[in-house]
Amino acid sequence: MALSQIAVVGLGAMGLPMATNLVAAGFAVRGYDLRPESRGAFAAAGGAAADTPAAAAAGVDALLLTVVN
After folding, report:
1. How far apart are CA 41 and CA 62, in angstroms?
2. Closest CA to 60 of 3, 1, 21
3. Distance between the two ends of the chain, CA-based, in angstroms?
4. Which of 20, 34, 48, 50 is an S-S bond match for 56, by CB 3.0 to 4.6 Å?
5. What is the pTM (predicted TM-score) of this model?
6. How far is CA 15 from CA 10, 26, 61, in A?
7. For residue 32, which of 18, 22, 42 has the smallest C-alpha distance?
8. What are the pLDDT tens digits along the chain (69 aa)?
């Protein structure tokens, strides 16, 4: 099964590089973080920033959680 849509919740020190590498590899990625600046950085890298974790995760094939606690 090929992944067509991936979501990353937690765009911090680990999540943002992971998400942007997935985008660079050609995956469609939605991302969410509590911090608007992290969502903005992800959008600037070509990802789709979501306003809520639920919006990021809706209908995806894979969900990556990269949160501190």
Report:
1. 21
2. 3
3. 31
4. 50
5. 0.92
6. 6, 17, 17
7. 42
8. 567 899 999 999 999 999 999 999 999 999 999 999 999 999 999 999 999 999 999 999 999 999 887
